[in-house]
Amino acid sequence: MARDYYGILGVSRDATDDDIKRAYRKLARQYHPDVNPDPEAHEKFKDINAAYEVLSDDKKRQMVDLGGDPLAPGGGGGGPGGPGGAGPFVGFQDIMDAFFGQAAGATRGPRPRTRPGADAILRLELDLQETAFGVEAPITVDTAVICTTCSGAGTAAGTHLATCETCQGRGEVQSVQRTFLGQVVSSRPCTVCQGHGTVIPSPCPTCAGEGRVRTRRSLTVKIPAGVEDGMRIRLAQQGEVGPGGGTAGDLYVEIHERPHDVYSRRGDDLHCRVTVPMTSAAMGTRLTIKTLDSEEAIDVRAGTQPGATMRIRGKGVPRLRGQGRGDLFVHLDVRTPTKLTSEQERMLRDFAKTRGEDIAELSKQGGFFSRMRDAFNGHN
Fold it and tell me: Under a CB-based contact definition with an 8 Å cutoff, are residues 172 and 109 in contact?
């Protein structure tokens, strides 16, 4: 009877090539004789290799699907170790892949000298007026720029890069290690050329072969109206130039809004506090409020209580990603006089009497609680 190669690997008949390879690697790591000394594991490992040999070959797999066994005597595929067979191992690379992954025998090759540069960040402090309505702000940045002497090549005038004699331009050197699987060849970056495959015989005297130099330069950044504290503005390719004169990274300008003497900001809205005398709150008055860009008159209604809030629409901060502006909220603090002249005190007492507010009675012990009791009983 034909062997169940699909069952040996634990895959279905419609398994893809990747499914078969993954199943083989998993089982190979489990039953390899150098890992599992059990004699039964050794036989199991032979079956696993035979199953993988068959199912990884399209013609042999087709024969299995038709009910045949390509590894059986006379099956046409050869048996393990025979002509056309794979022996106890399917292949050294497959075994290496099973234990170390596909990159076990892969080579990296030389690293390019020209690489992209890093991004940079700059803190910019602005006033509320500037963040609200926008501004063109000058900034100074210290970043790496391309070397003008060698134009980023890193070599002195009239000279060129040379092939590294140690790695012969490969950028890496190989070493052989002995493992339980035999000799394993590994690669590492060449220490002479740092993995580039080339060396600079005569470095540029200005940049010492880097292809870039650090310098201080001035820019102007356009701050849009409505930006908030903590936001970042991106200036494309204004950051660090990469090694070898590589493409510059981006520059991010981080906004920090200074505290305002009068206004506090919450998103697009502004808030401020205004103190009004007790008499003005009682009788009503008109206030003139100086906003960020104009003056607005607001009416304080008679009888306004402490903590009242008045709203002036459209006098906040312009919206960054939309039309219009936020609102201005004016919070009223009613000021009660702390020192009165004799005449002022007499006038207030007379005023209290006209309103039925007996100040002397309230000052007596228990007078306040008596009024509270009477008020409570009056509602029952």
Answer: yes
Q: Which amino acid is at 54?
A: V
Q: Which residues contact 39 (CB under 8 A, 6 or more apart)?
A: none
Contacts by 263-269 with C-beta closer than 8 Å and gap 24+?
A: 263/128, 263/292, 265/128, 265/228, 265/229, 265/317, 267/228, 267/317, 267/326, 268/226, 268/316, 268/317, 268/318, 268/319, 268/325, 268/326, 269/316, 269/317, 269/326, 269/327, 269/328, 269/329
How far is 264 from 259, CA to CA, in rounded Å?
7
Is the pTM above the cut of 0.70?
A: no
Of 227, 247, 230, 250, the closest CA to residue 239 belongs to: 250
pLDDT digits (tens, 9 = 90+) for 94-149: 555 555 444 444 446 688 889 899 999 999 999 999 999 999 999 999 999 999 99
Residue 277 one-letter amino acid? P
- Position 179 confidence tier, pLDDT thresholds 50, 70, 90: low
Residue given tokens 């134009």 in the structure block: 151
Choosing among 1.10.287.110, 1.10.1760.20, 1.10.1060.10, 3.50.50.60, the CATH entry for 5-105 is 1.10.287.110
Mean residue pLDDT across the chain: 83
Fold of 115-157+204-258: HSP40/DNAj peptide-binding domain (2.60.260)
Q: How many CB atoms lie within 10 A of CB 316?
A: 25
Q: What is the CATH number of domain 264-335?
A: 2.60.260.20
